[in-house]
Design brief:
It is elongated and about 95 Å long. The protein is mostly helical and 321 residues long. The protein is built from 11 helices and no strands.
Length: 321
């Protein structure tokens, strides 16, 4: 006959990995037995049932053995999550709307259309910011603590009124957001509101329109992730080596396609050179591609060195403190 204890032990065991199940079931059965004895000594009329009620939901008990979070975002990450959300909502939607208004103004759209598009864009940006930021923190909540790359709070992270913060300062935050927004806006602007015109008055994009099949959306997504990452680093108040690695990954994800396309002649639109009456036979695409690749490489190299230097500085400062 199956007892309530058997059912409880089974309910706990089925919520843990199989390789832990046998050992855990023995521990839970012993815990139930001890609790039943305690209830019997207290004079409970049904000590077994009272013991099970005291132990509570089997899923919650199983989580205590497996260190599995039962909340979407727990207290360890919630302060960083709240700071990140506040910063993103206060900066990203206004910047996105401003960029869109400027682009549509250059395109000479109707004021009513601009206002309607601004409202729609603000709603979409808010939804995406909330969803993707929450998703990132939900994933981080389920990553082992040593692999999160998030600095645990210590008194050393308190702001110093005289020396400022050791992490990304507010100027770096605003600069990073504006740079990402500028790149994204420039990609859309050169496609839909380029001042370069053909003889018939058609707009001529600077970048190769064929790149919209993959690479331009890729660059837009990478820059958007860099904006989110910049806000997240600011919320942590200091660099760490895992954060520096994340910065390097995003920088490389931007650099490799841009440099490769520039060097192979696939980045710039051939019609652009014809529209600006570039001399025939001049290898504009060639030397411009090399120049773009070199500038991108130097910019990314500076970012990588800066991130590693700041991570090392933060680690040294923390160890000294």
């Amino acid at each position: 006959m199956t007892t309530i204890t058997d059912r409880y032990v089974y309910a706990v065991g089925r919520r843990v990995p199989k390789h832990q199940r046998d050992e855990l079931e023995l521990e839970v059965r012993a815990l139930v037995t001890d609790t039943i004895e305690a209830k019997r000594e207290e004079g409970a009329s049904d000590p077994e049932r009272d013991a099970i009620i005291q132990l509570g939901d089997p899923e919650r008990l199983a989580a205590t053995y497996t260190d599995r979070p039962l909340q979407l975002i727990g207290p360890a990450l919630f302060p960083a999550y709240r700071r990140t959300m506040v910063l993103l909502y206060s900066l990203v939607p206004p910047i996105a709307v401003l960029v869109m208004v400027v682009v549509q103004a250059f395109a000479r759209d109707d004021i009513g259309d601009i206002i309607g598009s601004a409202i729609a864009l603000a709603i979409q940006v808010c939804v995406h910011v909330g969803f993707w930021t929450t998703l990132v923190f939900v994933i981080l909540e389920r990553v082992p603590r040593e692999g999160r790359g998030i600095a645990d709070w210590t008194p050393d992270m308190l702001p110093d009124p005289d020396a400022g913060e050791r992490g990304l300062d507010r100027g770096g935050l605003i600069g990073g957001i504006l740079w990402g927004a500028f790149i994204i806006a420039a990609v859309f602007w050169q496609q839909f509101a380029s001042p370069i015109r053909t003889a018939t008055g058609d707009s001529v994009p600077v970048l190769n329109p064929q790149l919209w099949t993959f690479w331009l959306p890729w660059i837009i997504v990478v820059m958007a992730l860099q904006v989110v990452f910049t806000v997240f680093v600011y919320s942590q108040r200091r660099w760490t080596y895992p954060l520096a690695l994340g910065r390097i990954v995003l920088d490389v994800a931007f650099l490799v396609p841009v440099a490769w396309l520039a060097l192979t002649g696939g980045l710039l639109n051939p019609a652009f050179f014809a529209a600006v009456h570039w001399p025939q036979g001049a290898d504009a695409a060639g030397w411009l591609g090399i120049l773009i690749a070199v500038i991108a490489l130097l910019g990314v190299a500076i970012e990588i060195v800066s991130a590693l230097r700041d991570a090392a500085k933060s680690r040294t400062t923390a160890s000294v403190a």
